[in-house]
């Protein structure tokens, strides 16, 4: 099973690229889709402002992509529905209602592209039932589970969103499409969930802050849980929780071309894996992180310690010396 990140969905060519990638799978995968890059932010702004100009921008971005892919008729009804939403009252459910259009539109486009190519595909809009905590909903059950596990056609599924018991759209929180992907993976008994993004994998630090950050080839689920909590790669904090619950499911964080990081329930070197910025200092995540308490660090988890030293230095002295052994 695969999740295609929004950073990989900006243009018509990007949807074609995603379809190429999906078509190469030996068996039709379940494909969880994020909203096109930047769209969720625009939809949240749209809910606040109800600006018709902003609506037109969202409309144009999708129509342009859909038109050049020859699938405009599929997205038009959703865009009409979004236009109508501008007149809805503001309520506890309205933010998630607006946000839901991002994934509904992108999944609809990808599904249409696959069908147009003659690839058997089904579209699932918000098959996850959640509680009603809008903006931070918790999945309760997966509808169509048997169909989704059948593997007789590509199943294109909206990430990030669900519906509550009353059928209202909910979201699991920003960056949550990875989390919905691992949740669905657990529910259908997937062996591996590939989170495909524009980054080459989980990196030892944010490359914007630490230029010589490296891709980690391997990581344990427990380390990944704590790395997500420490803010690594902007993962939703609950991304790896379903992986633990599944027991024997692996996650791969990768780009189209780079095999990236494999996350399993095995432990492997290096001892210090990820450094994130934590306030003025750093959070270090890794098997040996607790050792750093002896150097004055504060334990934040079984594999996380906070140090009052900036990420760049911590990376230089704790991560880099070990990295050469795993390459
Ligand atoms: N589209 C959602 C967001 O921007 C979910 C995601 O991309 O993971 O937060
Ligand atoms: Mg994301």
TrEMBL record:
Family: Belongs to the aspartokinase family.
E.C. designation(s): 2.7.2.4
InterPro entries in the cross-refs: AceGlu_kinase-like_sf, Asp/Glu/Uridylate_kinase
Signal peptide range in chain numbering: none
Enzyme class: transferase
Record protein name field: Aspartate kinase
One GO-annotated biological process of the protein: homoserine biosynthetic process
Cellular component terms (Gene Ontology): cytosol
Protein species of origin: Pyrobaculum neutrophilum (strain DSM 2338 / JCM 9278 / NBRC 100436 / V24Sta)
Residue ranges annotated for the Aspartate/glutamate/uridylate kinase domain, each copy included: 2-253
Sample GO molecular function, one term: aspartate kinase activity
Domain of life per record: Archaea
Keywords of this entry: Kinase, Transferase
Matches recorded under SUPFAM superfamilies: Carbamate kinase-like
One Pfam family matching this protein: AA_kinase
